[in-house]
Amino acid sequence: MSEHELTCGIEIHQQLDTTKLFCSCRSGLVESDEGTFLRRLRPTASEMGEMDRAALLESQKGMTFRYQAPQGVSCLVDADEEPPHVADEEATDTVLTFATMMDARIVDEIHFMRKLVIDGSNTAGFQRSALIAMDGRLEMNGKTVGIQSICLEEDAARKVDAGDGEITYRLDRLGIPLIEIATGPDMHSPEDVKEVALRIGTLLRATKRVKRGIGSIREDLNISIPQGARIEIKGVQELRLLPLYVENEVKRQRMLLRVRSMLQERGALPVATEPVDVTESLKGSGSKVIRSALKSGGRAFAVRLPGFAGVLNGEDGALRLGAELAGRARTRGVKGIFHSDELPGHGITEDEVSSLRQSLSLEDGDAFAICAADEDKAVAALRMAAERANEALQGVPEETRDPLPDGGTRYSRPLPGAARMYPETDVPPVTVTQERLRLIRDNLPELPDETIRRLVVEYGVNEQQASQIVRGGNDAAFERIARTLELPAAAATVFANTFPEIEREGLDVNAVPDDDVLRLFQMLSEGRFAKEALPSLLREMASGKAAEDAVSSLGLSSLNEDEAEAIVRKLVQERADFVKEKGMAAAGPLMGPLMAEMRGKVDGKAASELLQKAIKELLT
User: What's the rounded Cα separation, in Å, for the pair 381 and 303?
Assistant: First the structure.
C-alpha cells in the first residue's frame, strides 16, 4: 500500500481515573441491575434549526431504553433528574497536563457543549463535551503528527442487553471522564496508525491518572482513499487489530469504487425505492426464513435492481455490495435480506427465482433483493437497501461503522454533522488561569523515553523489558516491587512477558489492582511459593481472585528441602534407565516433568540443583 493510497486520522478516548465528571460518584464498573427505569428519546433541532441525520435515523428505530442505576456508581445526575455539578477539577487538570505535553494551544475558558446522541447511551439524549486545547503535535520516528483537538467529555452508559424494540443500559460507566484526542489525517499506512495509537496511549499512562484494562481506552479510525470517502470505524478496543481494520476498510472502499465503475459502464440508473409485494411467488417456499415470516402473518417484498447482477456477490465474493445492502436493511429491525446473486439457495429454488424475475419484469443483467417479515419492517428494510444501492452509483458513502472481532466492520449510521452540537446551559464555564497552567508546567510527568532509560540504569533491566513495562503503564508498580522487595528481575519478567501473554489469552490482567500485584510479590519474597507459579497465580487473579485466594485455590505452599528431595529422587528412580543412558545430560529433559510435579512449590534454580545432585548419586 503506497503512501498516497490511504489517509487516516485517529480519535482516542481514554477514561480518566477520577470520580465521575459531573458528580462525586465513584467511577467503576459493577455487576448490579438494581434501580431500573424506562425512557424514550427523540432528536431536537440545533441552534440553526437543523436536524442531525444520524440522530434522525436513530429516532426512526422507535426503541425503548431501560436503565439500571446501581448505588454508589450512579446517581440522579446520571439519570438526568438532577443538574450536573461543576466539572471535576482533577479530571480537568489531567487533560490540561496532557495538552501541555503535546505543546497544544489551550483555551482561555472551558465551555461544555451538548452533543446530540439518542441511541440510548446517554439518558439526557446528549453527551457533554468541552474543547480544552488545539493545534498540538506529536513527534515520532522523524515525523510530526498533528493533534487537532483535545477535549474533556463524559463516557456513555454501558449496553448490557438488547431485545426486540428495547435496549438495556447500565449507568455505572455513564459520566466517567474521558479525554478525547483527535489527530490530523497524517497517517498513511496501517503500521503508522498502530504506532501513533501506541505512542499516545503510552503518553497518557505517563500522567498516572488514567484507567487501565479492557474498555478503558477506545480508538475511532477515520479512513479514506483517493475517490473514496471518510469512513469512521468507531470504538476499536484492541490495539493489535488497528492495522487489520485499516487494511480491510481500504479493500472495502476499493471494492465499492470498482462496483461504481462497473455500474457506470453498464449505464445503470437509480433504482425505484418502493418495494413490490411478492408473497404469492413465495407462499410455498422451502426457505425456513420466508416460511416462518409468512406463517406469523408477515409478507414478502422485493425491490428491482436493474443492472446490478454480479456486483452483489460476484467474482468469488470479491464484489460484495449485497452485504452493504443487508447492513442497511438491518437498521430497520430485520435479520437480513436475500439477493439474486446468492439465489437459488437458502431454501429458495430455481423455479421460485424464475417466478420472481418474471413478476418483477427483470431482464438479463438485472438483480433483485427480497425480505420477508412484518410488512412495515420488510418495506422499511428494503427501502433502506434500495437507497444503499443508489449510493453505489456514486461510489463510497460517508458513514460510521462498528468494528467486528475478525477485523471487519458493519454499518452503524450516517456520519453525524455539526447540527448535533449546541451549548450546555447547566454547566458554568471554567476560566483557565495562568497560575493553574504554571503549576501544571512545573509538575509535568516524566516522559516515557526518560522513564525507560532510568529503569535500565537504576534496576538493571534491559531496554526491551523497560520499554514493555512503560508501554503497559506498569512502571509505577514495577518500581514499588523493585524498591521495596528487591525483586526487579522477577517483576520485569512478569510485566514485560507474563502480562502480555495472559492478555493474549483474553484475560484482563490490567484490571488486577497494583496493590494486589504487590501483595503477590510479598508472598513470593516470604517463600510462600516459587516464582514459576507467578503466571498461574496471575491468571487466577485476572479472573477476579485476590492474591491470597489465588494461592489457596492452586494449593500452593512451599516444600521443605526434605520433601523436595523426595520428589526429585522418586522421579530419577522412575527414569533410571534414561538417566543411565544420558548421564548428566538427562537433567535438561527431566526438568519439565519435575517442575510440573512440584507445581510452583520450589524455585526452578533450587529444583535444578536437587535434580543434578540426585542424578550424580544414581550414577556413582
Answer: 10
Residue 48's pLDDT band (boundaries 50, 70, 90)?
low
Q: Which of 333, 334, 336 lies closest to 325, judged by CA?
A: 336
Dihedral sign for Cα 516, 517, 519, 520, please: positive
Give the residue carrying C-alpha cell 422507535. 62
CA distances from 314 to 70, 311, 367, 457 (A): 50, 5, 12, 60
Residue 467 DSSP SS3: helix
Residues in the chain: 620
| Contact present, 181 and 200 (Cβ < 8 Å) | yes
In order of 331, 402, 408, the CA distances from 414 in angstroms are: 11, 12, 18
Predicted pLDDT at 599: 56
Q: Do 149 and 134 contact (CB within 8 A), yes or no? A: yes
CA distances from 151 to 106, 131, 179, 232, 336 (A): 10, 4, 6, 18, 38
Which among 368, 289, 356 has a CA at the least distance from the CA of 325?
Answer: 368
pLDDT digits (tens, 9 = 90+) for 367-416: 999 999 999 999 999 999 999 999 999 999 999 999 999 999 999 998 87
The H or E element that residue 93 is part of is helix 89-101
Which residue is listed with cell 499512562? 205
pLDDT class for 596, splitting at 50, 70, 90? low
Under DSSP, the state recorded for 88 is P
Query: Does a cis peptide bond (omega within 30 degrees of 0) precede residue 344?
Result: yes
Cα separation, 168 vs 64, whole angstroms: 9
- The answer to whether 445 and 90 have CB atoms below 8 angstroms apart is no
Q: For residue 378, give Cα distances in angstroms to 299, 331, 430.
A: 8, 11, 50
**DSSP letters for 408-430:** -EEEEEPPP-GGGEEE-SSS--E
Model pLDDT for residues 498-521, shown as the tens digit of each residue: 999 998 898 888 888 899 999 999
**pLDDT per position as a tens digit, 552-578:** 887 665 555 666 677 777 777 877 878
Cα–Cα distance measured from residue 422 to residue 115, given in angstroms and rounded to the nearest whole number: 7
- Give CA–CA dist 576/557, Å, rounded: 29
Q: Which amino acid is located at 371 in the chain?
A: C
Q: Which of 55, 155, 151 shows the shortest CA–CA distance to 112?
A: 151
Find all residues with CB under 8 Å of 152, minimum gap 6, and list them: 21, 87, 91, 92, 95, 110, 129, 130, 132, 177, 178, 179, 180
Output the nine-digit C-alpha cell for 195: 504506532
Lowest-confidence region among 47-61, 68-82, 140-154, 236-250: 47-61
Q: How far apart are the first and last CA of the chain?
A: 66
Cβ contact 55:116 at 8 Å: yes
Backbone angles phi, psi at 154, to 5 degrees: -100, 145
Nearest to 347 by CA among 293, 308, 426: 293
Q: With left for phi above 0 and alpha for psi between -120 and 50, is residue 76 left, alpha or beta?
A: alpha
**What is the value of pTM for the model shown?**
0.84
Torsion of CA 513, 518, 522, 525, to 10 degrees: 130
- Alpha-carbon distance of 202 to 217, in angstroms, equals 12
CA–CA distance, 154 with 95 (Å, rounded to integer): 13
Chain position carrying cell 410455498: 284
Name the DSSP class of 121.
Answer: S
Dist. CA 407–CA 554, nearest whole Å = 36
What does the alpha-carbon distance between residue 459 and residue 465 come to, in Å, rounded to a whole number? 11
